[in-house]
Structure formats: C-alpha cells, structure tokens
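Sorry, any thoughts here?
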Amino acid sequence: MAHAYTPGLKVTARTVLRKERRLPLKGKVMVSEIGTKVKAEQIVARTELPGNVLPLNLAGKLGCDARDVKGNLKVKIGDKIAKHQLIAETKGLLGLFKSSVRSPLDGSLESVSDITGQAILREPPQPVETDAYIEGKVVEIIPDEGVIIETVCTFIQGIFGIGGEIRGEIYPVVEQPDQELTVELLNEDCRDKIVIGGSFCTAPVLEKAVQVGARAVVVGGIDDEDLKNFLGYDVGVAITGNEQMGITLVVTEGFGKIPMANKTFRLLQEKKGYYASVNGATQIRAGVMRPEVIITLEEDQSMKTTGSAESGMMEVGTPVRIIREPYFGELGKVAELPPHPMKIETEAKTRVVKVKLDDGKEVLLPRANVELIEE
C-alpha cells in the first residue's frame, strides 16, 4: 500500500509522549535518577543568567588618573555592592575636598581598568527555572541541561494558538462542537480552568476569559480580525507563544467559524475535571510547532496506547485537514497517493495527494497542503 510521511495534527485518545525540558544555558539538573516521577509544576533544572553590565567612568567622576582609581576603591573587585553604597573615594586635600562615587545599582564590581579608569558593574544574576510541564517519569537526564519526560496521555494538537505553557483543569462550557463560546458562558467557575468552547470565539470573549481568571481557551475557530483586536497587532508569520495577554488560546480547526472536530470535542468533554498542560506556541514554517493540550492519564499497562505521538505516516484512508486555500480548514481522507510528481494548477510539478472531502468531493493537492489528523 502506498504511504508517505507528512507533518500531522495529532488527536489521540491515548498515546506515549516524550517532552524535552532543557535550560537555555548550562546549569543544575534537579533530578538525579532515571525513572523518577515528576509533577507538572516540579522544577527539573535550574540556572542563572548573568546580569546586565553597566560601565562607570570612575576616573572621570573622581577626577584622578586612571592608574590611581584602584587605590581609591572602597570595595574589592568581585565584591557584592548595594545601590547607593560608597564604592570609591579620593583622599582629598588634608582630608577635605574629597570626591566620591556611589553605586547606581545592586550587583557586583566586576572589573576596573588601569588604562581607561572605567569600572564594570554587573547587576545580580537572573534565576531561570525549567519545570516538568507534564506529569510523568524521567527517562533521560541531559547532564547540566535538563531531562526528557515520558507520559501516557490524551494528546490534542491545534492548528494555531497564542500564549505560553499553562496548566489547569479541563472545563467544557458548551454542549455541542458547533456551539459558539459566548461571553455569557464565562463566569467565576472558569477561574484557573482550561475552558473548552465549540466553534468560535471573539475578542470580547477572550477579554472576559482573562477577566474571570481562566487559564486557557480551546475552540474550533477564531476570526483573524478578532485575534488582531485582542492582541492589538497582527500576528504575522512569526512564532507565537510569548504573548503576555493573561491567557493561552488553542484553535483546533482554523480561522473562521468552524465547528470543533467531533473526536476532539468528545475527548475534551470526556476529560472534564482532568488536569492538563496547554501550550499555545505555534510555528507554521520551518521547524513546525503546534499548540497542544496534554491530559495525563493513569499508566495502566492493560490499556492499549496508539503508539508514540511522534509518528507521521500518511496512507489511503488517513484523516487529513487541508491547511492552504482554496480548501483551507476542510476535512477529508486520503483517497490516493500517486507515487510520482504531477503537474498542479500552477504548472509546477510536485508530489500530490488525492483527498476525498467530507462532502464527497475529491481534490488533488500538493502534499504540503495537508496535515494528518492522527487518531
């Protein structure tokens, strides 16, 4: 049977997922043994980012030669200093007419140049901590950098999102996948929850979600104008995930009013009250990154999993979603995988896939225009 590999949108009831949790620079790993079970909020690695530096012209401020600056220091190089602390002072004339310099910041005195008379002050280091993000067990330790965590979970990827990593309880507020998420459905019961909507939400809905303290909203679709109004700017093609809007958003289907896929909606409904990890970070181009909902399950060996969430095999019958116009957002199944490149409407030759849409229509598309919906 013909098959191909393509980036996929995973919607899996039960799978084994691994997540790498790595520091931005070397530090200390807080887990010492492989097999250690960790909670989602648990810190697994820690380091410190060097503080910003500030040059200070001590020779000029003291009114002395550069080579005399070190003799006027009141602290040692490498010492910690406090803001407004006296760090240098001249002897003056008969103990009078002294010139002095006080620190403009909390930090440390890093160096003093005998040639320029410049001092380098450094602000305190900034602690950086990496948490586990998901509940699971450590299967690999990356020395001085982090860990890889494995969990059995329900794994749902969206097509687009904003906002970073958060955690909370799954909390559906609609009853049907085609039901719109409205302002009236959001209240104080949504505080600290991952709110599950249906087909659509607007900018006022996201604003109300922030107001009531929801941690995330998961819906089928959103209008690009609503997204712009909520953020205050166009997202463009850059990676998302660093937005500081007070909430994370995961769009499962696409832009516009699109009912959430039945399987996705059912899985989220069934997991009401379960603790989940959610990340809205998205990158469509090189190095594809999808927003995700990860719901950790009990690790029961008697229950079958669907394998690793890292798979990506496309074959006849595989459910897919079209991710480019003119059929953007439409669902279907692979009907045929021609083995050789074919000419498409643009006259270019490329590898293609024939997709039978849910309405029965068959269309021929470049393989890059579809992504898997893995079951």
Q: What stands out?
A: The chain has four helices and 29 strands.
